[in-house]
Design a protein that fits this description.
The protein is α/β, with parallel strands linked by helices and 291 residues long. It folds into two domains: 120 residues, Glutathione S-transferase Yfyf (Class Pi), Chain A, domain 2; 150 residues, Rossmann fold, CATH 3.40.50. Helix content is 51%, strand content 10%. The strands form two sheets. A four-stranded parallel beta sheet has the order 2-1-3-4, sandwiched between helices. Strands 6-5-7-8 form a four-stranded parallel beta sheet, with helices on both faces. The mean pLDDT is 97.
Length: 291
């Protein structure tokens, strides 16, 4: 199983622990990863809201690079997943837009052909053969841990585009966490946006949305919050400090990437996974794996 890794902007610029743990876990699971130095931004909604054709052409160029390597794309970012998958699906189905975008791409010697797929890491590890490898490589079962899980928006929505999991009550992350031996819990706002995209637009709502989740998770005394999106991670990591200061409350709910949790269960070194780089330190997790 081989993929072309699309890291996106946020993981490369701000989230080294996500990438580090991803690479180590993929090696254990036999998921081969190749890199493409010429990838650029996925062309998110901030681009398409200004120029739809520009956004589609930018996404198409990334897809062309994967097509030239004859490799499906794997990404860690929910936004990149949705944006690239949406462009890929649309250009395969809409002949008029495909012709228009290929006229643009012709200027740089590229042509979109529609020969590859775009997948999220969570989607890949939920395949039966990878689940079997996960189970076979558990060295430190997490049977003494309890976690909240958080999906974010674009891993599962819009379902007509991403075509993965249940868009209302998803289970893909919960099932992997439970496969590692841990328990997962239901909490207030589990299936609602993290609020991060509202920063700078409605700061009160951007803080209140994750605050309600943090309050609920604290009441449940979880060991951490397992995520699979870099933007959501920052809302609950660095953003948690802002919320605590503003409301004069303390939650200390450590966000942890699903890749890091897999690495812990596989017996990998926590520092090598990047847990020491977290702003909200995963103290409960570290205490239990040190016992």
């Amino acid at each position: 199983m081989k993929f072309l890794f699309f890291p996106g902007c946020t993981v490369l610029a701000k989230d080294p622990s996500f990438e580090a743990s991803f690479i180590q876990v993929c090696e254990i699971l036999g998921i081969q990863i190749e890199r493409e130095p010429n990838f650029h931004c996925c062309a998110p909604v901030v681009v398409s809201s200004v120029s739809y054709d520009t956004a589609l052409a930018l996404a198409a160029r990334n897809l062309c690079l994967a097509e030239e390597r004859n490799l499906d794309i794997i990404t860690l970012c929910n936004g990149c997943f949705k944006n690239l998958k949406k462009a890929n699906k649309h250009l395969k189905e809409d002949e008029a837009d495909r012709k228009k975008i290929n006229e643009i791409l012709k200027e740089i010697g590229k042509e979109f052909k529609g020969t590859i797929e775009v997948k999220h890491f969570v989607q890949v590890i939920n395949e039966d053969k990878i689940r079997e490898k996960i189970q076979a490589n558990i060295k430190r079962p997490l049977t003494d841990m309890v976690f909240g899980t958080f999906y974010g928006c674009h891993l599962i929505r819009p379902h007509s585009v991403v075509e993965f999991d249940d868009p209302e009550i998803p289970r893909s992350i919960d099932e992997i966490v439970e496969l590692l031996g841990a328990k997962t819990v239901e909490y207030e706002g589990k299936y609602v946006c993290c609020g991060g995209s509202l920063k700078g637009v409605d700061d009160k709502a951007a803080d209140e949305i994750p605050r309600q989740k943090l309050i609920s998770l604290k009441e449940l005394d979880v060991d951490g919050l397992v995520l699979a999106c870099p933007m959501c991670y920052f809302t609950f990591d660095l953003g948690q400090f802002d919320i605590q200061r503003k409301y004069k409350e303390q939650y200390q709910i450590a966000p942890i990437h699903l890749t890091e949790l897999l690495g812990i269960a596989f017996g990998l070194n926590p520092k090598g996974l990047g847990l020491n780089l977290h702003r909200i330190k995963p103290k409960k997790i570290m205490a239990k794996i040190s016992e």
